[in-house]
Design brief:
By secondary structure, the protein is of the alpha/beta class. The chain is 41% helix and 16% strand. Strand 2, helix 4 and strand 3 form a beta-alpha-beta unit.
Amino acid sequence: MSKSSLNRRQFFSSAAAASAAVALNTGASPAHAAKADSHKPVLMKLGDQTAPTTAEHLQYLARYSIKNICGYPQIADKDRIYGTVDELKQMVDLAAKSGISVDMTTPPFLASVSIDRDKHGAIMLGKSPERDQEIESLQTMIKNCAAAGIPAIKYNLVIVGDLRIARTPGRGDTTYATWKFSEAKPPTQFTRAGDVTADESWERITYFLDRVIPVANEYKIRMALHPDDPGMPPQGYMGDRRVLGTVDGLKKFISIKESPYHGLNFCQGTVSEMLADPGKEIFDVIRYFGSRDKIFNVHFRNIRGHRDDFVETYPDEGDIDFVKAIQVYKEVGYKYMLMPDHVPVAATDKNGLQSFAYCYGYIRALLQSAAELS
């Protein structure tokens, strides 16, 4: 039976296998574990992070039953790198008119772009006093989100940004983003950050967390970091060791500051790209971070391949069994958004809105199937 068949038999089979694994780890009988797992409620929500957060786009999202999003405020001053309370509230109110809740937002910096293109890269450059000014802007954004009723912020801490080398022909007339480390041709030896050691990266990350997470604690705003995409061999790439591009690196990251508001924007695709055998390994990674309540958002996307060599696919044709993945998120009590990301594109669908619509329906069906076992 193919992975794309979303019928009860396959879902129940995957659920039974997951329950058997729980039984082996806990000493309970498989039947007892399956019964206990079947009564867990589905707390996850279908989400989205496509932009812009305008009335027209919100209606597009509402058309596909999206009720929870990561939204993007309209910031009046292009030089200001945080949203004001009024700007954030305007976004929340606009979304509410379409029956949509803004569950997360992001500042207009700390994005997944190369530090060579980023006007506000002082945090990962380790450059003071500029990094202190950037951190202060993020602290203000945290306070303003609390006032506007937005409970979470997603962000990146990167040097070289997201990397791909080509697009590979996919299903129909679509193409898939592709990465092969062996064929990568860096444009320069280093970024403007130079040759950054792992210790230097960790110092800069810790400096940031020491100043941001206490404010997140005070205002009860979840801070969700996106991992480096993709991970790299130990020697790194363009002088970046990509310390947030391994599972061990992410484990170290969440341990730096103990806080219920310090966690991950868990990109399942990016984490799969870190693994030698993602089809087998990803579920225990979900369990590790999910059981510790460190997953604050999920980019629910699939890949075909493995570390250093992969393409990004539709959810039903990659190496990760999404039926099983949903069951594992349910098992750990994950309660925030599952959203598509990095969808295939076609010449007639350049913004990927048709592909996103396909993914919305696919994820919604998975969630409904999982709820039948509750």
